Amino acid sequence: MARSRHVGHRPRIPEDSLRGRRLVATDPLEWLRARCAALPEVTERLSHGTPTFFVGQKRPFVMFWVNHHEDGRAALWLAAPPGAQEACVAAQPDRYFRPPYVGHRGWLGVRVDGDPDLEEVGEHLLEAFYAIAPARLHPPVSQ
Asked: How many C-beta atoms surround the C-beta of residue 1 within 10 A?
């Protein structure tokens, strides 16, 4: 995965900003980078001041936010298939949310502070990638 992020830039999680919540045992940004590195044509660069992952340098599919506008959470904002945002937020509003700025386009906010189910987060990440990636990057459909 090509990275065009600024050298030495790494978002720090202010100790008091998460109000005592613990993050996943693995650094969530490093976990995200490792997962995205396995996907084709994914690049990372800062967008709006936060690490953002793109398909083919143009189309973002996931953003990593820590304490966005002092909301007190570490979260991923992910592109999502139609209806996923509404279903997830209704089922688990403590884990999922409608992110500002991109929520109106169906994007899903997923908290990664506390103890998230990384398998489930990984599934959302793949859904986000395939929601944005061109068809040539999708796996072949078996019949």
From this structure: 14
